[in-house]
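Students often ask why we bother predicting the structure of a whole assembly rather than each chain alone. The short answer is interfaces. A chain on its own may look different once its partners are present, and contacts between molecules only exist in the joint model. In this exercise we take two input lines together and write out one structure for the complete complex. Read the inputs first and try to guess which parts will touch.
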Amino acid sequence: MKTYSRELTVGVALLLLLAALAVFAPNFFDGQPLVSRLASQMPALVLAVGVALVIMTRQIDISIGSQFGMCAVIAGTAAASGMSMPMAMLCALLAGALMGVVNGWLVAGLGLPSIVVTLATLVTWQEVLRLWQKGRLLALPDGVQWFGTSQGTGQALVIGAAFLFLVLMAWAMKHLSIGRRIYATGSDTEAARLAGLAPKATTFGVFVLMGILAGVAAVLNLVQSPQIQPNSGEGLELKAIAAAVVGGVAITGGRGTLWGVLLGLMLLVNVNPALTHFHQPPYWEKAIQGLVILLAVAADGIRHKKQKRLK
Amino acid sequence: MKRFTLSIALVLFALVSCKKTEESGKLTVGFLLKSKGNQYFVTCEKGAQAAAKELDIDLRVDGPIQADPAKQNEIVENWITDGVDVMVVACENKDSISTALRKAKQAGIKVVTYDADAQPDARMYFANQATAQGIGEKLIDSAAELTGAEGEFAIITGTLTSANLNEWIDAIKARQLEKYPNMKFVGIRPCDDQKDKAQQEATNLLSANPDLKAIVAVCSPGVPGAAEAVKQAGKKGAVKVVGLGLPSENRAYVKEGVTQAVILWSPEDLGYLAVHAGVALAKDELVEKDAKTFTAGKLGELQVVGDSIILGKPIAFDKDNIDDYDF
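Now the answer. The structure tokens for the assembled complex follow.
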């Protein structure tokens, strides 16, 4: 039970928030806005899961927002040029994988610190987008929004795909060797190497997976409106990393669950709608989110200290 | 004393440039765009061409392929060497181009800026697209007209700290309190200049305020974002969407009837005005720092505030006229 204490705490906080909304602002639970709100957070969920895996290997990827933007514009351009939807989606995933390879090679191959590498790629992809698109919205052809189906079906597909992915990943982390390799690489790279768990290959693989997931997230976002904005990924990296940290993924690597990431994300992203429904000014949004992150990090610090003392 | 010498110098230079005009007959006007690839500036150029035809001048249009301050400086330098009579400039970078423009002024060239200004001492007049008050009032007037001037409305802004947006919002609120007492302001949400966030904010505003009648977006990503939220909520027509933005980014929603009005000044008129002002300076019909009004051809008499010539109130693009504008 002790191992899941963070997930429990965040879950309870989320339930309290939802309960307060149910009592004071029941409109929050109206069907359509609830579904639209949930669907619009699915890209962030996919990114948060990806970055959680990166953090678990004791690395960081802050370029995911830029990767997301690149993938979105590439898929959008492909679709606008007449490519079929599956082909456009494939372009996004390939582009993501390629950007992941760049990060992975620089970090795992050359042994450079991931914070510096991904800061560089964050800026690079962002500037490429700026030069390429000049900030203008890109109109998508008919048949892209909601995968060419109705709003209801499209939203169900987006939410269904994201949750199916989450369940599969959570299962894989527990039952497949990939989970063991990720946790081992993050807890003690040297021990992982001695145990034959190939930490370098694991790190490389996690960055490539992150890139592919940026492509998946971009597609899940792309299908929710008839236009895309080139800077749509700006700030997403912080949202995803914050969700992982609040959900109990230790920034020092080796620890955390994907269910915790889901809870962390849901807690953070519902702060803003809650403020709107309580008719409070928006100035509080970032302050409250910041406080939540701070509490999570502080709790981590205290846990870390206790563990040290036990040793 | 310094100012006195400067004005003497200016007068002298003005005389020199007048002389040149007399010699060559036709005035040469350089019209500088921020970028050739931007529909907005291509539309500005249309107006400039119309003014050139009317005034019988030689118009040279140039600009970087993509927004590039260094390239703009290069073009200005070339024009100085060529000895154009007038430069009409939209500045990509205020500080970087001001040095080159000062040099042009010293060479006796009349300098007018439009759309984005240079340092005040680097040009003679700035053709200003609209005042904060003009923009704010037009937005709330449109919302009032669409809602019968009653009911709740909310605002979507870019960021809470953006100075020009806040000025517009102040103008919106002041106008509403004064002219539309039956309208009720229920809240403002920032979209961080992101369309997706604007959509989420609008979705929340709609479910938190079931009686909402209008959303006013003061930043351009906010307009399509709010429109998509209204559409997904099935409240097309019931909740009006108005905002400041480009017609091209909102055309589909306007035609569908989700967005009722997109507000912007006419870039064509802005280009037209700027060329008229430049030519008037060269013909001494307009004197630096002296005018209270300026008459620009078909646009009629326009107000001059300080050294800005105000284009006037922005226009509203709706179902009927949005296809006439391709920027």
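Check your guess against this: Chain A has one domain: 2-305.
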